Amino acid sequence: MNPGNGTVISVMDVGGTHVTAAIVDLQTRSLPLGRSIREPLDGDGSAEEIVSAIARCGGRLPAQRGNRWAIALPGPFDYDDGIGRYEGVGKFDALRGFDLRAALTPLLPGLPSVSFCNDADAFALGEWWAGGARGHRTAVGITLGTGVGSCFMRDGRSIRHGPGVPPDGRVHLLRYADKPLEETVSRRALRRAYAQATGDVPPPDVREIAHRARQGDRAAADVFSQTFRALGTALGPVLGAFEPTVLVVGGSIAASWDLIAEPLRTGLAQSEPARTDRIALQPAQLPDEAPLLGAAYLVTAPIGTG
Questions:
Q1: Other beta carbons within 10 Å of 283
Q2: Spans of all domains in the chain
Q3: What is the pLDDT of residues 198-223, one digit of tens each?
Q4: CATH no. of 8-122+289-300
Q5: 3-class DSSP assignment, residue 103
Q6: Any bridge partners for residue 280, and if so which?
Q7: Band of the pLDDT at 65, cuts 50, 70, 90?
Q8: Which CATH number applies to 132-283?
Q9: Residues with Cβ < 8 Å from 181, sequence gap 6 or more?
Q10: Is 246 strand, coil or helix?
Q11: Do the two domains 8-122+289-300 and 132-283 of this chain adopt the same fold?
């Protein structure tokens, strides 16, 4: 199947707190229903609870001819076989060794064909196909939330190896200050840094910290500045070597783009000033739709990885 032939596909984006479902029109690169459907999901729940939430959300979509589903979800996951590989990642532990494809197939309308893809890849390819990275031959997409997701792209292909590409294209494997990057850049790291700076325990969530920063809370502003300058410092060498023309940033924390863009650019400039100054920094244009669009693109136009 090739995007542009007027077909539609059912898609879902599975996260640690909710699951979203939609129909994607491959010709218009849009959601023909004009909206998506969301259901709560507990990533710490049992396998039965997680499967039930996914199936309940998918069941709210009208059945489509062909009955093909594309489901984006975070790793570690065996996307070919549909089996969870989660262990100690803070969510979906109940899916470790669990055959999610076998569990979902009889629960979704019409005994469909179910394909899986990585949620960060889906986000990035969705932004490349229809959003902020459209028209760029070489691009990188990252998502900021419970961790840092990433996808390195060239000509609509996800690149896993090569100059500037971290192992398997995953920037969460990078290190900063001799620690894994996500110990500095993640929801938990931001909250921990704010608690250490203020003694505010338990600390507020990231959205509230951002609100306080905008209201003049110096500690909150410093936490954002230090965190995303660190992200830029860590990303500088890999982006300098990969040479994308755009870096697209999505995920729940990217909603605070006004507090992220400047320190991120500063960190990039400090680490690789000559090789990153021409990279456009772009917040996601389709923060909610991109993973859905990208999932449809990835499973209906298999183009391989580099």
A1: 17
A2: 8-122+289-300, 132-283
A3: 999 999 999 999 999 999 999 999 99
A4: 3.30.420.40
A5: helix
A6: 246
A7: low
A8: 3.30.420.40
A9: 148, 171, 172, 173, 174, 175, 231, 234
A10: strand
A11: yes
